[in-house]
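User: quick one, sequence for these tokens?
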């Protein structure tokens, strides 16, 4: 699926910003939604939900649908949907089961409610597919961005509780379990191998790089972390960036992968309505800069000519709480 955009300059025309992606996660309908006006002011070309778009934790589809509808009618969000493309994935709380994966029995019904929320047409192939993974390519003046949405819930192996330390979860033995399932892995490989886009944005509801905290992360399946690194490297795809949510904190993580001419950045943006205000620190060997533990959303500003992306963590009143710049040669 793809679409074309005329070049749109955002804000000061001297910035040479060709495309703006805004994203966020962890959004409750029973708390004030205070950041949507700031998202609107950023004038994004696309908004990407990173998961936990509502907090339902239910297998009652009537209750789930009602909560989605409340979010749809939130005035400022409604303005955004009227002017901006909306993409996204789910995480555990809108999926329906806390920390849930393949074992959630209501996942097929929940998927249909998620697709309703995302205004996916009844005739779309996504209605018949298992899992909410999908992609969309944006063409802009001879350049393009491919946004690859992963589903880290539908196929994901049940997690292993940590009964030996104070952490919630512990990693599986190397080789045991899956994040994406065979069909989605094959689809992802095809997406990256065939991509000619200037940038390839992988949306994962949970963090790809940071994993020492003991909560949900790709690191609970260490072989899958390595597999994704290999898939990215082998594809030779340009400008691969990971976006994640889930944690109620925002941060940048960065690593070098063998065979790649640029580092992979995992930009975590969470949460929109509530944050880990009691955050007292946690290890993350990949972290760049400081952790933001107040409400925020993320912005990526793309400059095709300079092959550059400006990453920004944005809070209330449009205040930039953290930023990172990366050139992709």
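Assistant:
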């Amino acid at each position: 699926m793809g679409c074309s955009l005329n070049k749109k300059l955002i804000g000061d025309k001297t910035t040479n910003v060709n495309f703006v992606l805004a994203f966020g996660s962890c959004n409750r309908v029973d708390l004030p939604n205070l950041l949507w006006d700031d998202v609107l002011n950023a004038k994004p070309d696309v908004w990407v939900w990173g998961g936990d778009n509502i907090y339902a934790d239910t297998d009652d589809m009537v209750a789930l649908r009602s909560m989605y509808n409340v979010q749809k009618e939130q005035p400022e969000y409604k303005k955004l949907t009227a002017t901006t493309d909306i993409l996204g994935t789910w995480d555990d709380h809108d999926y329906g089961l806390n920390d849930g994966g393949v074992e959630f029995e209501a996942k097929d019904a929940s998927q249909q409610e998620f697709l309703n929320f995302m205004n996916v047409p009844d005739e779309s192939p996504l209605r018949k597919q298992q899992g909410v993974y999908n992609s969309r390519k944006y063409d802009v003046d001879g350049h393009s961005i491919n946004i690859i949405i992963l589903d880290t819930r539908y196929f994901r192996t049940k997690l292993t509780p940590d009964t030996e330390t104070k952490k919630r979860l512990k990693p599986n033995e190397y080789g045991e379990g899956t994040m994406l399932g065979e069909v989605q892995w094959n689809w992802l490989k095809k997406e990256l191998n065939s991509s000619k886009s200037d940038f390839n944005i992988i949306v994962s509801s949970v963090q790809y790089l940071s994993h020492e905290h003991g909560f949900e992360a790709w690191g609970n399946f260490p072989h899958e972390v390595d597999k994704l690194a290999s898939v990215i490297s082998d594809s030779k795809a340009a400008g691969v960036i990971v976006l994640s949510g889930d944690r109620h904190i925002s941060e940048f993580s960065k690593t070098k992968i063998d065979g790649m001419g640029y580092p992979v950045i995992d930009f975590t943006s969470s949460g929109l309505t509530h944050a880990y205000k009691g955050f007292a620190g946690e290890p993350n060997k990949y972290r760049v800069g400081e952790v933001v533990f107040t409400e925020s959303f993320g912005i990526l500003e793309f400059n095709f000519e300079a092959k550059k992306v400006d990453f920004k963590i944005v809070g209330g009143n449009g205040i930039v709480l953290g930023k990172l710049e990366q050139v992709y040669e």
